[in-house]
Amino acid sequence: MARIALLEDETLLRKELAAFLIKRGHEVVQAGTLAEFWPLMPLADIAILDLMLPDGSGEEVARRLRQEYPRVGILMLTARGAIQDRLQGLDAGADHYLVKPFRLVELAAIIDALLRRLGVGWRLDGQRRLLIAPDGFSSALSVAEMTLFNLLCDHPGAVVTQRTLVEALGFDWLDYDRRRLDKLVSRLRHRWQEESGEELPLRTEYRHGYSFGAPIQRL
């Protein structure tokens, strides 16, 4: 999943693109003008830019983005497909240049490639209760699992002790059967492996607690 800032002045096209990207699990913020677009950028992973705008040029936007947000992925959309136009867009800082009309599956493939290049890390979506892997795969979390990952986000790189987790779940440490925690973590690992085909880097620190073997941030 990516956080995408979409700048497109054609309202119908913008809504169609946003709906498609949201359906694929991305978080999308939309703008039809530069004035609406700039406040949306600080939290974006990828910017999708129309070349021709009512209050500016997509190439100008790409140059400024590359200066202010050097790690952001930039995808430029345009009806101009001449080689010189493509070269100008890439020279302005765009990673990809997509000529209208284009297939939505092509747009999706480009975004997936950008995410791999950017190395977007693990993220926790509290509003939708999702854990999101760097490749965009996501899985819904139970309330207890969400509590665990909130604690892991609060203590990056550290071990969340069993006692901290038990008390965060609202139970008394002395009366709680700690085997329930191991079952909680084991089920989560197993489910993630089955759904994604990848191992979840959630570690059990023997008789102590749990840690996450990768950077993770809260959305």
Question: Which terms summarize this structure?
Answer:
about 220 residues, elongated, Rossmann fold, about 25% strand, five-stranded parallel sheet, Arc Repressor Mutant, subunit A, alpha/beta, 8 helices, 2 domains, four-stranded mixed sheet, about 40% helix
In brief:
The protein has 8 helices and 14 strands.
How does this structure look, described?
The chain has 219 residues and is an alpha/beta fold. It folds into 2 domains: 3-118, Response regulator (Rossmann fold), CATH 3.40.50; 122-218, Orthogonal Bundle (Arc Repressor Mutant, subunit A). 41% of the residues lie in helices and 24% in strands. It contains 8 helices and 14 strands.
**Major sheet summary line:** 5 strands, parallel
- How many angstroms separate the termini? 11 Å
Give the helices and strands as they follow along the chain: EHEHEEEHEHEHEEEHEHHEEE
Instruction: Output the strand order for the largest sheet.
Output: 2-1-3-6-7
Please give the oligomerization state of what you see. Answer: single chain
Category from helices, strands and their pairing: alpha/beta
Proportion of residues in helical segments: 40-55%
* Domain tally: 2
The total beta strand count reads 14
Radius of gyration, in angstroms, nearest whole number: 21 Å
The number of distinct helices, counting runs of at least 4 residues, comes to 8
Strand content: 15-25%
Low-confidence stretches: none
What is the fourth-level CATH superfamily of the largest domain? Answer: Response regulator
